Prior knowledge:
Elements: H1 7-15, E1 20-21, E2 27-31, E3 34-39, E4 42-46, H2 48-55, E5 61-62, H3 72-82
Antiparallel strand pairs: 1-2, 1-5, 2-3, 3-4
Amino acid sequence: MKKCEDFHEAIAYLNEGEMLTTKDLDQFFIHKERVVRRFRGSHYTLSFEDFKELYQNTVFYLYEEAQETVDLEKDEAYYRYYKK
């Protein structure tokens, strides 16, 4: 995950439609001109002013979904075994 250099960079990513995360796995994104904080099944929205006041000293990371790759060799072996 790419670390945001400062709070202004984090705001810029949010304005570009990106999702941010923290080391505690909080997720932040913009919805209807408000910042949404999502964590373990709960969420709430904040104005930009409240977001800045509460999180200006937080270290943010650009959220990237895990990319699962399929090992084609294992996949072929699996299907060869079960097609017998």
